[in-house]
Amino acid sequence: MSVDMRTFLAHVELANPVTTAAGCAASGRELAQFFDLHRLGALTTRSITMAPRAGRPTPRMAETPSGLLNAVGLQGPGIDAFLERELPWLAQRGIKTIVSIGGGTVAEYSELARRLADAPGVTALEVNLSCPNMEDRGRVFAREGSTGAEVIASVRSIMRYDVPVVAKLAPDVADIVSVARACVDAGADALSMINNPLGMAIDTEALRPSLAAVTGGLSGPAILPLAVRCVWQVHAALPGVPLIGIGGVMSGRDAFQLILAGACAVGVGTALFHDPYACLRIERELEDLLQARGFHRLADAVGLAHRPPGSAPRHLLVDTEESTP
Amino acid sequence: MQVTGTVLTTRRVDAYHALTVVAPGITERYRPGHFVSVAVGGARTSMVTRRALSIHDVKSDYGGTVELVFTVRGSGTAWLAERRARDTLDLVGPLGRPFPLPRDPVHCVLVGSEYGSAVLFPLADALLERGCRVDFVLGGASADRVFGAMRARRMAETTTLTTEDGSLGVRGKVTDALPSVIADTRADAVYACGPMEALRSVTAVAMEFDIPVQVAVEESMACGIGVCMTCVLPIIGDDGATRMVRACAEGPVFRGERVRFEDVGTIPFDALGAPGGGARHAS
């Protein structure tokens, strides 16, 4: 029997829990050359900004042990081009689309939300509070609960009630739970974590930083344990909040870790650079793992690792409970 | 498309490595200028980015083979250099925008610096098929770094070789020999591949002669399929505006005069979306 892989992001149903991570699938067209995007749980776009952005100078990328440093700087054509060309392309095909937005001020996020509020084809809105590349006087919204909450409250008040607002959090904070709680209190319907932690590499031939931007976001398998920890802590504190677990997922087993820690969906990012089919493979592997462990529904595995030591997994108890008169 | 290819042969070509891989799906759609990306390090690798490799040759035997040429630059290419016959490789391709070919049988000079020459041979085949005259200018730092001199001599009308140390052919760079080759062959077009600095000077020479020049750039890439946005360079568009354009998806072949070589590695202040305003009005 196959596993029921459906999952809910707030009230929005996704056919399966695997999404692309923001900034790792552009706006979908590139991956559509390889497979039918309908097979994704959802496609998350790169972070859309108000104005076109040329991004950072090159080199923008450096490979690190089990990871990748990047400093792209949110390169993109801006909201006008996105609404004109990219979103309609996705909407016409009926592809579930999580639109990521990035801004430098609360007003900019609000304006982006306003522009997207009436656009057809937005399944959910992900607010990138944490992009370490934003040239915003070095300040990152996700660093404090209060600034993150301000953005979320404004965006939530503008977006239509039936479009979930997802706050994307950074791991470079003293207490991710307090930031998560502040965002949920401000109206976030779901949270996604983690964005790239900041890292740095130095080129030992050139004797200077490997990236033109000096520091960059670290992604890839190196950050999976960081993502599992963040999802675990936030799920423990806010068990009712849907979480999208993101960070270094390369296999179904990695995704399963995030699910067991409390994520109801999983974002795949850097793995797409290695394997354009990564999302499909990971979904298949995750389903096989669930099936091998006797799960009938993905939902039964969400946060399961939080059960007290010594207790049996709930889903395995179902049969005995039902047979009890 | 993604293909699990099987290594057929491996060989050293002077300072470079060449791998022939059975990769049927890729050869069918290949056009000169296309490249492939290769996963390195095996199944449980810690290397998460793919390596973009030039295609030196495509043959129809064994259902379709590609010959890939590379130089060892780091642990990824070192791993590739250790592959042996019957090993498998995870290839994605063909990728990128191929060389545009002239409609008429014109005279073409093909300029290759270092192992950038590799991509020019399938191009030369396609040009010869169209009745074009092909002349090669190949160069490198030393004799062992001039790629494909023998093959060039067999297929081209003339082949000019240059080395910076004078160990083979003319002492100097490809661009030192290029003006006289263009003049002698009455060239109508130039095609070039190699390091950015070489492409910059080849473009300058071609522009002096007022003939079109197509360059294939070698930018470092993480994905090769257009999603990672790391391989960008400033390119002037049809509307005159400069954009940061992906070498993998919109390139690797560009019209030379459209590449702002002197600004590669920077965001020109007038590029679309440059910090501080730039050409934000353009769309």
Automatic annotation (TrEMBL), chain A:
Reaction catalysis annotation: (S)-dihydroorotate + A = orotate + AH2
Binding-site residues for substrate, renumbered to this chain: 70-74, 128
Record EC number: 1.3.-.-
Sample GO molecular function, one term: dihydroorotate dehydrogenase activity
Cofactor remark from the record: Binds 1 FMN per subunit.
Requisite cofactors: FMN
GO biological processes: 'de novo' pyrimidine nucleobase biosynthetic process; 'de novo' UMP biosynthetic process
Pathway as given in its UniProt record: Pyrimidine metabolism; UMP biosynthesis via de novo pathway
Annotated binding of FMN, by residue: 128, 168, 194, 220, 247-248, 269-270
Compartmental location: Cytoplasm
Keywords from the UniProt entry: Cytoplasm, Flavoprotein, FMN, Oxidoreductase, Pyrimidine biosynthesis
Primary enzyme class: oxidoreductase
Record domain Dihydroorotate dehydrogenase catalytic: where: 8-290
Pfam families assigned to the protein according to its UniProt record, in alphabetical order: DHO_dh
Claim: Oxidoreductase is one of the keywords in the record: yes
Positions of the catalytic residues: 131
Residue ranges the record marks as coiled coil: none
An example Gene Ontology CC term for this record: cytoplasm
Protein task: Catalyzes the conversion of dihydroorotate to orotate.
Database matches in PANTHER family: DIHYDROOROTATE DEHYDROGENASE (FUMARATE), DIHYDROOROTATE DEHYDROGENASE (QUINONE), MITOCHONDRIAL-RELATED
Protein name per Swiss-Prot or TrEMBL: Dihydroorotate dehydrogenase
Automatic annotation (TrEMBL), chain B:
Any one GO molecular-function label of the UniProt entry: metal ion binding
Binding-site residues for [2Fe-2S] cluster, renumbered to this chain: 223, 228, 231, 248
Keyword Iron-sulfur: yes
Cofactor(s) annotated in UniProt: [2Fe-2S] cluster; FAD
Annotated SUPFAM superfamilies: Ferredoxin reductase-like, C-terminal NADP-linked domain, Riboflavin synthase domain-like
Keywords: 2Fe-2S, Electron transport, FAD, Flavoprotein, Iron, Iron-sulfur, Metal-binding, Transport
Database matches in InterPro entries: Cyt_c3_hydrogenase_gsu (IPR012165), Dihydroorotate_DH_ele_sf (IPR037117), Dihydroorotate_DH_Fe-S-bd (IPR019480), FAD-bd_FR_type (IPR017927), FNR_nucleotide-bd (IPR039261), PyrK_electron_transfer (IPR050353), Riboflavin_synthase-like_b-brl (IPR017938)
Sequence ranges assigned to domain FAD-binding FR-type in this UniProt record: 1-101
One of the GO biological process terms: pyrimidine nucleotide biosynthetic process
Pfam families: DHODB_Fe-S_bind (PF10418)
Cofactor binding description: Binds 1 FAD per subunit.
CDD domains from the UniProt entry: DHOD_e_trans
Key word Disulfide bond present: no
Chain positions recorded as FAD binding sites: 51-54, 76-77
Family that this chain belongs to: Belongs to the PyrK family.
Name recorded for this polypeptide: Dihydroorotate dehydrogenase B (NAD(+)), electron transfer subunit
Taxonomic source organism: Nonomuraea glycinis
